[in-house]
Amino acid sequence: MQQNQTVPEFILLGLTQDPVRQKMVFIIFLIFYTATVVGNLLIIVIIKVSRTLGSPMYFFLFYLSLTDTCFSTSTAPRLIIDSLSAKKVISYNECMTQVFALHLFGGMEIFVLTLMAVDRYVAICKPLRYPTIMRRQVCIVLIILAWIGSFIHSTSQILLALKLPFCGPNLIDHYCCDLQPLLKLACMDTYVINLLFVFDSGALCSSSFLLLMISYFVILHSLRNHSAEGRKKALSTCTTHIIVVILFFGPCIFIYTRPSASFSIDKMVAVFYTIGTPFLNPLIYTLRNAEVKNAMRKLWSVKITSESKW
């Protein structure tokens, strides 16, 4: 993989070195990760089996939940296991794989949230043309393009990581492998790679967030011409999306738009968008979405009825 690479493995310092706190980390994040997987898989199943959730919004929500599950899985299991390990060792190849997975599913999260904003813009600002513009075939093509874009982004990140020679030390002050903490260990001048890293990840986060905020501003501005009931429904949906966008993009921008500076709070901020946001998304989309809650009730009632008959 890397001719100049002499370090066969890295040691992750994790969130804390205190044994008592490590046990707390194990319990807390095991609960968070389990709830994340269960919650997102529940949304996936509900959207798949429900006949009432066939609109493009739920088509994209399906992929958001799928991405959240994979995104959280790229970091949480190792964090949970390492919290009980005396020596948190990760091999070079595993580290590079984690960098690739982190940016693949992180990029997909960005693109899916952008597609959801596009869907809401067309639904609210172009209601008569909505069925034509956001037809099933178009949505499928958009998701395929999102996967391609995510793959290109993650490939660019892993190519930058593979260019870094590691001669020692091999202590990563983080709970996962990412390009930013790896840059500190490289035995070379990383100025250019650092700029490329910020230009790629930082620009992707910042530009996507700016476009999303502009689109939602246009949507909210256009609601003046809608009825009171239409405004209420549209505001409910848009508010949900805006909350998710801010929760995800805020930490991302904080982490990926700085050229070389690092702060002690970085690890906690990274935890929030890699594990916290995938955990919160199912809660936000179910608690604030009447259609999803109704579909859940119908699915539950069908299950209870079938069990009683049995």
From TrEMBL:
Q: Does the keyword Transmembrane helix apply?
A: yes
Q: Which UniProt keywords apply?
A: Cell membrane, G-protein coupled receptor, Membrane, Olfaction, Receptor, Sensory transduction, Transducer, Transmembrane, Transmembrane helix
* Protein name, as recorded: Olfactory receptor
Q: Which InterPro entries match?
A: GPCR_Rhodpsn (IPR000276), GPCR_Rhodpsn_7TM (IPR017452), Olfact_rcpt (IPR000725), Olfactory_Receptors (IPR050427)
From the record, give the transmembrane residue ranges: 24-47, 59-80, 100-118, 138-162, 191-222, 234-256, 268-287
What is the first-listed, main subcellular location in coarse terms?
A: membrane
Q: Which residues form the G-protein coupled receptors family 1 profile domain?
A: 39-285
Q: Which GO terms describe its molecular function?
A: G protein-coupled receptor activity; olfactory receptor activity
Species for this entry: Chrysochloris asiatica (Cape golden mole)
Compartments (UniProt record)? Cell membrane; Membrane
List the membrane topology term(s): Multi-pass membrane protein
Q: Which family does it belong to?
A: Belongs to the G-protein coupled receptor 1 family.
Gene3D superfamilies linked to this entry: Rhodopsin 7-helix transmembrane proteins (1.20.1070.10)
**Do you know which SUPFAM superfamilies this protein is assigned to?**
Family A G protein-coupled receptor-like
User: Cell membrane as a keyword?
Assistant: yes
Q: Which GO terms of the cellular component aspect does the record hold?
A: plasma membrane
